[in-house]
Amino acid sequence: MYFNKKQVFRFLTLILIITVCNACRDEGDSLPPSSVSYTTLVYMAADNDMDSQVDYTLSQLKAGAKRSAGKVVVYLDRKNETPRLFSITQKGEEQLLKTYGEGNSADASKLAVVIQDTKSLVPAEKFGLVLWSHGMGWLPYNHSSAKAQVLYQRTAFPKTRYIGLDQSDGTNTSPNVMEIDALANALPDNVAEYIWFDACLMGNVETLYQLRHKCNYFVASPTEVLAEADYEASGIPYSELLPYMFGGKNDLIKACNGYMEYYRKMRYSILRSATITLVDANELDSLYSTAKTILKGNLLLLANLNMENIQAYHTQNVPNVFFDMGGIIKKVGNGSPAYTIFQEQLARTVLYKNATDKIIDKLIIDPTQCSGLSMYIPLAKWKNNNEYGYYFGKLGWSGVY
Fold first, then answer.
1. 87 pairs with which residues across the strands?
2. pTM score > 0.85 for this model?
3. Percent of the chain predicted with pLDDT > 70
């Protein structure tokens, strides 16, 4: 086919215009969104074996920051390094804000100082908080299971996260953990729009009730959380979810949904392990009241409760004290008007819940038996254990009995 010079020129001009337009569109698509006045602090207590997950998490945060409208700030305390506070720009670059002396990052008062520093150095209308570390639900450090086994065990693949573990505070090498009652006492009320626990077993009603005045929403997992950076399966997939962590309830729902989609797509079945719950903190007082109506005076019944058909959220790696709240209440109050009222309140409290059908190929999850929150059962066999005393001595939720 023959083309004259004018036809060739027009053709080349058309190609150039299309190329330029596509380049402009691609460039526009890759630009970060307009900024919003929202700062999210990721508090990484990594002075422990979670240090192995830090580099992967930072890379995820930097990728997510490029697509985020808010400002992300990271407090990082890792092995053999000075703790530091830095922001991550929309270009994915670190900007140092402050350094700290070696100390105990699992001290709740330290967390409170870092939050205040963040709000002062990066002021914003709204503030989100992510607590990234090991977690063991509401359990105290001196719970009845052997401390060495729980805090230092090296389990076979995959590793999981056991809030805030610091194995070197500058004065000794013994581990320190952040007790839930201490955390509640250290944090001011309304400190954040949300608190997201990027740690194991924190989706329990005892912890969230203790912290109910600290934020509007909680995001947490009632089961263990994977920490397998080598397989890109380590806690929150920030590269995908960070853009949703600078908004309100609807954005958090999108983040929770994205969390589950991410883990359901894992190549290996053992890594298709995730649970997530979004809780309205302002509904927890009402949840307490409706649960108390059913549970008050029934401590003896619970001490000898038949555990059949109650969903467990623990694997053999951790103390077997995390059971589904809805299942427990149903055992005691099913059929009563009070139980119907409790169910309605639970639906107002838990805004989103989801789970894979298995956790680490060990724990089977039945979605029909999951309320999204775990709860301790004060069985008679626990009475002489440290966690039983801590539960009734320090945690406000124990008042339901």
1. 73, 95
2. yes
3. 84
